[in-house]
Amino acid sequence: MIEGLAEILTFPFMQRAMIAGLLVALMAGLLGVFIVQRGLSFLGHGLAHAAFGGAALGLLIGVSQPLWVALVFTLAAALGIAFVHERTRLSGDTAVGIFTAVSVALGVLFIGLRRDYGVDVWSLLFGSILGIGAQELIIIASVTILTLLVLVPLWSRLAYATFDNELAQTDGVRVRLLEYVLFALAAVAIVASVSVIGVVLIAAYVVIPAATARLLSRSLFRMTALSIAIGLFSTVVGLFGSFLLDVPSGSTIILTQAALFLLAAVLAPR
Amino acid sequence: MIPPVLHVHHVTVTFNEVEALSDVSFDLAEGEFLAIVGPNGAGKSTLIKVALGLITPQRGHAALFGEDAGRHPERIGYVPQLKTFDRSFPATALELVVSGLRRVWPGRLRPHERDSALRTLEQVGATHLAKRTLSRLSGGELQRAFLARALVRRPSLVLLDEPATGVDFLAEHDLYDLLERYQTETGATVAMITHDLSAARYHATKVAVLNRQLHGFGPPDEVLCEACLKEAYGHLGHAHGVIVL
Question: Cβ B105–A159 below 8 Å, yes or no?
């Protein structure tokens, strides 16, 4: 069996898919801890839809890499959400909901203006991890390195601000700046991930491993480690499963995550 | 000349054109135990946040240890209102205490941090809570954990925002006992918001009666008088019993 699985990894498209999936799992697992613990699970969903709006704009204006347009668009949406969240008494999810609706409306409008419902839109929505190219892999690897370089040194401050904004502030932590950094990084990571698992599934990738880890953890440090581990494990299982069963990879990855979540929900102490 | 630990100078804070604090001034010397009393919405928490440097007043200023508020977080131990934080956060009481020492959230605990935190938990009678998660602590236990978090860095000034809210009489009594013991050991200054005028009378060396303006500041015997409280609260209500005690 191990030989069979190793043989699957001899295919270059599977190698690229595995590397890309593991990188996304690493980023999403790390970011997801803060997003879930701050009660912003809807953020991944909202930013993924903003990426959809931006990529649709990229397709409309005919750029070679619509993801760059999506990146600018999603960053603007992320900073907009952070701004509305900070300046109004609205909950984070309400701010996300508004930006999600506007992004989807714009995405549909841009696609409608293009009058071409081609394969680009399909892969944007549902991803194409098995069809990922070397250039996209480089983008994802770069974004993962960026995320790790920013997030790992900031982990303690972000965790403190996530525990209690006011306490963190009294100890000199710049909580407002950190929130903008977190939202901006989430935007970048989600845009990079859109090409791997698609708009529809990236939100789950951010939320499910972290939520599962939350059920099994007594500390945020352990939750972070577990969230990443669950993301990595479900990527490997999901990709092999998809190859063996000949079904879409994005679905098998997320369904593996969902199965782990269900198991944790049943087994975790209350 | 030694500057006061807390210097509040003509502080005015306005939220949406409503004054939360109006021209408040006082000095708190080293080793004092200040109780800040006043009705709901009197600006008590706002005053503490000005002292912590979390709120910048529109007029006036606050200084701690002779420097602008917020400059020396390492010298302050702050116990927030317990109702404000997320109890579902995955953390043990030990990690909470270490966060007070490290001043960021701890990942892996270092041996000397663990020892320090355990010693402080022991001082507040909460060693048995060290490994318990925050979601499994009662109000009184949580208050002890937060107090240990504030004291673990051996602060020169302890600020407490309604520390006795939601805890029973015995836990409240223990809290004042612990604070007084810490003061005796270290000579620290304590400033505490409370609704309990009896506690203010019996434990504080200074009382600030606040209702947006400062209606009185001085020793409890002088400040917790009928006229002063009536001016601040508008009526005496249950406070009357405290005055005649």
Answer: yes
